[in-house]
Every structure is written in structure tokens, then in C-alpha cells.
Amino acid sequence: MRETLTQALYLAASVLFILGLRGLTSPAHARRGMFLAEIGMVLAIAGTLLHHEIISYTWIIIGMIAGSAIGAAMAILMPMTAVPQRTAISHAFGALAATLVGVAEYHLHAGELSRGTMAALGFEVMFGSLTITGSFMAFGKLQELVKSAPVTYPFQNFINITLFLVTTGLFVWMIVDPSNGTVFYTMVALGLLIGVLIVLPIGGADMPVVISLLNSYAGLASSATGFVLGNNVLIIAGALDGASGFILSVIMSRAMNRSFRNVIFGAFGGETGPAAAIGAGDKTVRATSAEDLAVLLGYAHSVIIVPGYGMAVAQAQHEVREVMELIEKRGGEVKFAIHPVAGRMPGHMNVLLAEANVPYDKLKDMDEVNGEFERTDVAIVIGANDVVNPAARTDKGSPIYGMPILNVDQAKNVVVMKRSMATGFAGIDNALFYNPKTQMYFGDAKKPLANLVKELRQLE
Amino acid sequence: MTLTALLQVYVFILAGFVGFFTITRVPPLLHTPLMSATNAISGISLVGSLVLAGSGHDSTSTILGVIAVTSATINVVGGFMITDRMLKMFKKDDKKPAAAPKP
Fold first, then answer.
1. Does any domain span residue A4?
2. CB A346 to CB B31 under 8 A?
């Protein structure tokens, strides 16, 4: 009877999770959807607490209180600019829970588990352990505790492939000989090591792909836990999470023109583009001032703003919103063009701009907005580089050739706001800067934008 | 492969399809909240952790269980709260018709 009730609650929870994710298809009913998902989680927990094996609630209550306190503190206190870090670290927590459940399951039942269960257990601890350390590394890089530049060392690929093969070997061995604890725990340890090694060579701009991939792995670890425990709600929720991370990493890798195989094996950061000589030869750039820029923007009918990671670093989103409001007050129309990989995680720019009170209907995806640049008076690029580099369309020899970009160079005037003439992540020169239509406005985004706001106000 | 295992694979694959078709319709605008939401949902490993922490097999599994319950709860509570905090910020342009004529 109890068991039936538990299963019914699990079924309801699974349906509510799916409805919750469906809510996210539009900002209008996203919050309602999440409310459904929250109810689903409460039902799943309630159903589990009825489980006949539970004899004491003491430790459960202690763990849940501690977890709620930490989780709530993180959610309330964390600034929106830290969203990528928080996401990375929470993948680590999810994976840690799944891995520990797997390890305990082995600790308690080693020898009595069937081959099929052992295989699921192997997936659980392997995905789990590499997600734990991988996410910690990603967190460290995003928080800049660890050097965020790609770290490479000799024989990197060889070492990674060897480790991968050894771990796969151990996985097979573990299924053949389930009672051998050494094999099992060595595999967990290698999983932890692989997690560190796959994120080590990854640079900041590749983070959106990595975070999505870790999201997917964390989901797959939960799903594998469901297989081990024979629990459908775990399988379903894990599969949803796995699918979501998978789709996001495919979208991200497409937007960076990386192959699908690259994503699956997480083997990126290998090719470091040539550190091209900048400003060499007869190429000249045109620098502009806040006064001139204010006049240009003040009389523009249509403006498209292209934000990039530089805006996030400078935390200039509020100044950007002020510029938008001032242009609108003078009758101009302002839109934002968001490249899928702008920032450090999928959708990063949208969240920052929404926080700064930019209405979401002004935030346009690449496909939606790319046709509009031709009809736009001014395109302002703020702290973005590779995603607006026309070489991706025209120069077959360029490392970023084929990457979908925002067609900023088609606008009537282009303003590029940048700290210096340094190259972007791919380390290649950007022809956009030397385009006669382009004006460079140098500075750290926040202060020059504040100056621009001041000048725009004085236009009256 | 036992029948139970086969049924589990069924559930996994069908849930994967449902996830795929639902999530491909999520606009890029909401990709960050999507990630924190799926993150909160993957805190469902709490379900396995609870049984482990409460069944009192031996001290090792209880300790592992308590750590697992704590970290899964961080994900569930933190994930849903941050998702809601983000979604609250997404507002539509309410002053749209007031686009003033050019001076």
C-alpha cells in the first residue's frame, strides 16, 4: 500500500517536472512552470520518506536543514554576475550526491549485485566522479582561483586517451568481477582525475560548452542512480537533465563551429590560433570620443547593441541600460543582439541585461536579428570580439572560418567599445576594427559608458 | 537483461525524447534559467540519498548519506530559488506605446 503511494507520488513528480520545463518555453509562464516543478520535488521527497528502509529521520533532517541553509544563502547572496560559477559548483554538488549514493551502494552490497546493476553503478560513479572534479575546476577557472587560460602540457592527448582506455578497461573488469573492491575504487579515483584533466586545457571562452556538458553528465549520473536503485523518478529527472545539457552543448558547439565529436569527448582547447600581429602594416583604426559618439547615437533612428563577455567583466550592464533609455527618449529604437556563446554560459548576457531592467523583448537571438543590421544606423559592440569578426564569413584560412557571427559590419555605422586592440579568445585579428565605417571607443566599458551617458544627457 | 532492466531502459529513452522535444523549444533567452532549473531537478538524487541516510546500515553509509543529502538539498533549494530570482527579472517592455517622436 505504502509502496503504491510512493510510486504514485513519483509518477506525479515526473509529470510535474516535464510540465515545469515546458513552462520555460516562454518567459510569460516560466515562473508558474517552475512552481509546478517545485511541487513535483516536494512530492518526490514525501514519497521517499515513506520508504520502508528508513528507520531514523535524525540524519535526514540534519542534512536537509544544512543543505537548505547553504543553498538558500547561495541563492540569495550571490550576485547575478556570478551565475556561471554558481551553476558550475552546483553541478559538482549534484554529482557528489549521485557518486556517494553509488559508492555506498557498492560498500553495502558488493558481491550481491547483478552484472546489469554493476554496469549502471559503473556509469553512475564514472559520470559522477568526473563531473565533481570537472565542475570544481570550471568553478575555479570562472572564479579565477585557477588560471583561466588553457593549460597544456606535453603528451596531453596521449595521456587523456590512455586514461580513458584504462578507465574503460576497469569498467569492464568491474562488471566481470563485481566483488573486487580495488577495481571499483580505482575507477572512481581515475574518474576524479579525468575530470580535472579534461577541464584543465579549456579556456574561458569555451566555458559555455563545458558547463553544458557537465550539466548533461550530472543528469546522466542521476539517471544511472535510478537504474541502480530501480527508481523511475530518478531515471526520468536525470534523463531530462541529461537531454537539456546535451542540447545546450550541441547549440553552443555549433555557435562556436566545433564539431559534434569534439563535444562528446570534451576534447577542445587543442588548437590555439596564431597570435597574429596586431595593427601591423598600413591598417589604421579610427578612435572616437564620448562627445562624437553621443551625437551619433542621439540622432540615430535604430541602434543595435552587441554585448559580450567584456560587458560582464566590467559589470557595465546598468550603464548600457541607461544608454538604451536615453536613445529611446530621443526617439531612437534600440535592440540587443545576443550571440549564443557570448559570455561564459548559455544565456549569460540575457540574465545580466534582464537584471539591469532591460525588457526581454528587446533581447534578440542571432538568427532573429542578423537580417536587421543592414537597416540599422549604429551597431555598438561592447566587449565582444570573435563573435563579430567578419573573417568567419570571408576568410577561409581563419581559425574561426564558418563560425556563425553577428553581421555587425553590415550596419551603417559601427562602434566598437574595447579595452585595447588585443585579440579575442581565438587570438586572431579582427578586420571589423579597420573597416572605414568603424569607430573605436577605447576603455573599460563601465567608465566610458558612464561618460557617454553624461554626454547623451547634455544633448538636450 | 532482465525485464525490469528493459523497462528502465524504456523509461530512460522515452524521458530522453520528451526532454529533447521540450527543451529544444526553450528560447536562448532563457538558457541560463533552464540550466539552473535542470540543475535543481537533478537534485532528485536526494531521493536516493534520503534512503541511504535514514536506513542506518552502518556508520560509513550513514555518513556518506548525510553528505549526499546535504549536497542534493543545496542543489534543490539553491537551484529553484536562483531560478525564480532570475525569472523574476525578465520583464516585458510595459512602456512600449510611449515611444516619443523625435525632437
1. no
2. yes
